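S.,

Sequence below, as promised.
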Amino acid sequence: MRCLTGDVETAWYEVGRGSPLVLIHGLADDHRGWRRALPRLMLDYRVILYDFRGHGASSLGQPDGRLAQLAGDLAALLDALELERPSLAGFSLGGTIAMRFAIDYPDRLDRLMPVATSSRVGRAAAEWYVERAGLADKGAEALLPHLEEDTREQFKTAPELAAEHMRIRRQSVADPRGYANACRAMTRLREEPLDPELAQIKAPTLVIAGAEDHLCPPKAGEMIAAGIEGARMEVIPDCGHQIPVQEPDRLAKLMLEFLA
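The prediction came back faster than expected:
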């Protein structure tokens, strides 16, 4: 399904019944990044998934390279779907969007679950995002070899899952401009980290990290949990960055226990 949210035509999907739970995918992914966790979640919740600006089947619109815009897109989608206070779970970049949303729209969510994400980026990570944005500006042919390398790195602890996920990523970044825009939004976290604003988040929060995640390590999750009053954290052992794909059952179990 599609709906107009400001300057973007947003592709969104719905499964299950119950209280609303919105799932936000990561950089270069689309809603299918959550595919393996859905069977358990949809039994108890009305699960809403969407492709954020310039990814998957959603249009690019007029991007400005800011997390605030991506969070505003989510607010516009909730308006269109008449969802007042859903719970939010975001993976990686999706987790950063979810936190930005919780800061900017504190009365519009019930519970918050950042998964394998961070509230800041260091110099090396910022340079990486700048480099990837530059490759995307050159087109898919320049970007895809590096995207494949990045995918293998994300699935370093579960290499057998990389090829299937790469199929999704090739489709999601068919227009690399959306990927470049998201990279630029993440680059801004170098100079504009979320850390000073995390205390504004009032929703009950569960931070989830993978013990073997070298991209967003547990330390990044600890910083988020420390910045949000009452937040707690869970670490999934023997798991790398792509928690929703690598450990969907353990992730869903943690989410369901928290939501209950």
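The chain has one domain: 2-259.

Coffee later?
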